[in-house]
Amino acid sequence: MTSAVPPPDVSIVIPVYNEEGILREAITALRHGLVQLRAELENPDLRFEVIIAENGSRDGTVEAAEHLAAEAHADGVEVRCFSLGEPNYGKALRRGILEARGAWVICDEIDLCDTDFHRRALELLRHGDCDFVVGSKAMKGASDQRPLFRRAATRVINGMLRVALDFRGTDTHGLKAFDRDRVLPVVEACVIDRDLFASELVIRAGRDGLHVVEIPIRLAEKRPPAINLVKRVPRVLSGLARLTWVIRMGGKP
Length: 253
Description:
The structure is a single chain. The chain contains eight helices and nine strands. The protein has a seven-stranded mixed sheet, sandwiched between helices. It has a two-stranded parallel sheet with strand order 6-9. Helix 1 links the parallel strand 1 (10-16) and strand 2 (48-54). With 253 residues, the chain is of the alpha/beta class. 40% of the residues are buried.
């Protein structure tokens, strides 16, 4: 009788949209990085799963993700994928978190796959130092190498979240890691998708009394953003208005 494969300890959720060009290279590099991470954490039995959350791609991303998931590897890193069928970052991230099986969940970006953040975040979570880790590209000690326009946009949205929702951190979008059992009720309570799901998740976690810690990251993207920043502005403003209405005023989404 064959014994059942144990569930992963860590789930890494990566939303992807039109990433055929870098998907295989990025996932392959991530697998190698996770094997090295086991050694750094001195835990050779640590098991990982990578969940590729495809959402509405128009290139060959779906097929590339399915091929990666079907390939067999002996490194203890399982790759799974699903296709949402519509371009919706927040909805894809939310579903990936809900489908994750690990005790700890890491939300990553395909053009980052930052195993240094993984290591530092897992050390905090494993030792019970916090419930939720945010990788901040805007706090002291961070290195944000994106174009000036994108760096300014991050500070503008953070300022808007501070005014509208009394957000006290420095970043909400990008790298995150958390204790799945503690954060799952927060995920299920979120009502905003698309661009501001990540912001709602971080803000609700803090408002619900979870211990949220920020750590600085080094951000150097591998390619230009898949979605034009200017085109996202109307969606972000609309989402912020809805988020403020739901959280501040107790309104229905």
